[in-house]
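P.,

For your records, the input lines for the assembly:
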Amino acid sequence: MDAAASLYGLVGGVMIGLSAVWLMATLGRIAGVSGILSGLLLDRPQGDSAWRLAFLLGLVSGPLLLMLLGGELGNVTGAPSEVIGDPVGGVGLMLIAGLLVGIGTGVGSGCTSGHGVCGLARLSPRSLVATLTFLGVAMVTVYVMRHVLGGGS
Amino acid sequence: MKTLMGYLAGLLFGLGLAVGGMTDPTRVLNFLDVFGHWDPTLMFVLGGAVATTFIGYRLVLRRSHPLFAQVFQLPTRRDLDGRLIGGAALFGVGWGLSGYCPGPAFASIAGLTAPLVAMLVAMIIGWWLARRFSRGH
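Structure tokens returned:
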């Protein structure tokens, strides 16, 4: 086990948690990325879009800031000076994956942040079931891609 | 002020994703690969995030309202249905194929590549399709 990666993971996790608490304390909102961004891009609610756009800009500028600072602040496997890792497949695979992630989080009302972080922290039974489902299915998918088909990376 | 608060939340979220290793799809897939060379990093990310949010929400939700809004907007549904589970399952397949869930995918825009653009465009189309599907029911 890579102790430094785990420690960075814990620190990163606490930061994500603090972000979720901050958004609830100031704006009274759940920090669910699929909900915030799909609302911004597709619904454009009056008077409720500016903070969503600002959240998106912040989300993008976080890793960008680490890149500009340099040093070994990222946590990319086998590349400590990198902040953002490369995609594991080409355009075709990502089109399929993106469509599934979009439809799935849209229909299932949430993703890793909304259900997996905020929902679990609220002890929501819906979020617990959703999180166990997407984690389990993702593990099976990786197993099939890597060990049955030998496809993936 | 609401806009600034939203920006700071996004900034902290993006920093946390990058420090935690979520902006590396390979690390995400190695975590999901429980039958291969399993990487526990994301367990620490999720554990740290849930524990912090659990404690923080309890402190924050004692107040009568948020600092810069009228009410706390919390989901109230507690029932399980096929849409929740089916949606989560579809999301799981996409996450397992790519190593991207929505947060890290958007947070990785600074390292833009053609496959990432494809992922983001397809995800937005997926959200649009999900809304059309929802209206029909």
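Two observations worth noting. Chain A touches chain B through 119 residues (CB under 8 Å). Chain A has six helices and no strands.

Regards
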